[in-house]
Amino acid sequence: MKNELFSIAGKVAVITGAGGVLGGSIAQHFIQQGAKVVAIDIRQEQLDSRVAELKKYGTDVIGIIGNVLDISSLEKVAEEIVNQWGRIDILLNIAGGNMPGATLEPEQHFYDMDIACWEKVTNLNMNGTVYPSMVFGKVMAKQGKGCIINVSSMAAYSAITRVPGYSAAKTAVANFTQWLATEMALKYGDGIRVNAIAPGFFIGDQNRRVLINPDGSLTERSVKVLAKTPMKRFGDINELNGSVHFLCSEAASFITGAMLPIDGGFSAFSGV
């Protein structure tokens, strides 16, 4: 019974941004747990590489090119999935992230921000969550059952300097998660749940430059982050997998509209 309560075996899980580090890590975990994985990415080379890697752990995986900012593209993806596997049980909105042009350097001011980069980052993180939720959520509404997981950020709890676009978009994701959870439950019953995770600080390709110096030492920003992290370390990307797994399982059947911080205590600590 315990294994069944936490099991995601046999569930059809759609993962956007699967070609990236976070999406790839979660996709691998889900395959290893017996889920059927649909890896979506806009980049053909990264997607092909990811699918080949995932097939080392299980055969129930397909890769489909899809643009999270193009509803017609997503509708074609949804149709292809339903034709192949008959349903969509889980949507993991992993596509997102920041970009150098949208990150202010320490000597820059708000007025120096590249507006084009602001628009790209806010669009990708906010609409890149809303559009897939709209398309794949429609399939779940017809089924009367499904689970959506979004990715917010520590920036949704309190201001983080230098990343205005990313902060604004991830705060919007947190609010949208609550709104959609309410909407789905009121109109389609308790079978559709919508939650979010809020990762703390993990060193990846997108933030390595601001957290690690070229010589491998910690930047001033990293020192500040760790000073406010009670566990006194950065997270490992694989430490997100268990929380996402739990939220997608029947063990979380009464959890919706929640945002789970996975941050080593960062959001709980005042610094004093």
From TrEMBL:
Q: Name one GO molecular function term.
A: oxidoreductase activity, acting on the CH-OH group of donors, NAD or NADP as acceptor
Cited Pfam families: adh_short_C2
Task: Kindly list the biological process annotations in GO that this record carries.
Answer: carbohydrate metabolic process
Q: Note the InterPro entries from the entry.
A: NAD(P)-bd_dom_sf, Sc_DH/Rdtase_CS, SDR_fam
Could you list this entry's UniProt keywords, alphabetically sorted: Oxidoreductase
**Family per similarity comment:** Belongs to the short-chain dehydrogenases/reductases (SDR) family.
Query: This chain belongs to which protein, by name?
Result: NAD(P)-dependent dehydrogenase (Short-subunit alcohol dehydrogenase family)
Organism field = Bacteroides reticulotermitis
